[in-house]
Specification:
The complex is a heterodimer of chains A (114) and B (113). Chain A has 114 residues and is mainly beta. In chain A, 0% of the residues lie in helices and 52% in strands. In chain A, strand 6 and strand 7 form a beta hairpin. The radius of gyration of chain A is 14 Å and the shape is globular. Chain A starts with a strand and ends with a strand. Chain B has 113 residues and is mainly beta. The termini of chain B are far apart. The chains are: A mainly beta (114), B mainly beta (113).
């Protein structure tokens, strides 16, 4: 049973456009929702994360929107650049239960074209 | 900037051989995780340590995989014997006690021939 569903699987965006990646979760105990960026051959790098006490968090060009009632969260990349081309993973965990492993989505391969 | 260190970065081995991977977490991080990432998929947990103790190894194939973190700092993951299906990226991550903000190392890419 996949606990975190991510879409789309791949995404092509024009330079300067907005990239939007969506995730949905099932476990209501999840209370920590990070996004990771991964380049080929590298480990995932923490990009931005949100906890359910807020509905939106913005860091530079990256914004997470969170809808607790719908059990959904999304990543928006504004002014997308070719250097943003990578695979993005959403994840979730239950921080209230102490240190717990992250459950990852299957990833979205983003290509930003000039 | 503090980083999670892993070695080797790449490992090619033949099936039935033994392999070992090493991870040094960020200093002060009590929690250490080993994840496996198959090409085209998200990482999946193999084992979690809190200090030197295993807290979750439910997804670790214990007939062939073992992990230890003897002094509660660095950790070793071993596979013996390796099988073709073990080809994957093995990722180590660490976090502070009580926080799930996890930082990943560069990974070890294992190819089993």
């Amino acid at each position: 049973q996949q606990q975190v569903k991510q879409s789309p699987q791949s995404l092509i965006v024009q330079k300067g456009g907005i990239s939007i990646i969506n995730c949905a979760y099932e476990n209501t105990a999840f209370d920590y929702f990070p996004w990771y960026q991964q380049f080929p051959g590298k480990g995932p790098a923490l990009l931005i994360a949100i906890r359910p006490d807020v509905s939106e968090k913005k860091e530079g060009r990256f914004t997470i929107s969170f809808n607790k009632s719908a059990k959904q969260f999304s990543l928006h990349i504004m002014d997308s650049q070719p250097g943003d081309s990578a695979t993005y993973f959403c994840a979730a965990s239950s921080e209230n239960s102490g240190n717990t492993p992250l459950v990852f989505g299957k990833g979205t391969r983003l290509s930003v074209i000039a | 900037e503090a980083e999670v260190a892993q070695s080797p970065r790449y490992k090619i081995t033949e099936k039935s051989q033994a392999v070992a991977f090493w991870c040094d977490p960020i200093s002060g991080h009590a929690t250490l995780y080993w994840y496996r990432q198959i090409l085209g998929q998200g990482p999946e947990l193999l084992v979690q340590f809190q200090d030197e103790s295993v807290v979750d190894d439910s997804q670790l194939p214990k007939d062939r995989f073992s992990a230890e973190r003897l002094k509660g700092v660095d950790s070793t993951l071993k596979i013996q014997p390796a099988e073709l299906g073990d080809s994957a990226m093995y990722l180590c991550a660490s976090s502070l006690r009580g926080l799930n903000e996890q930082f990943f190392g560069p990974g070890t890419r294992l190819t089993v021939l």
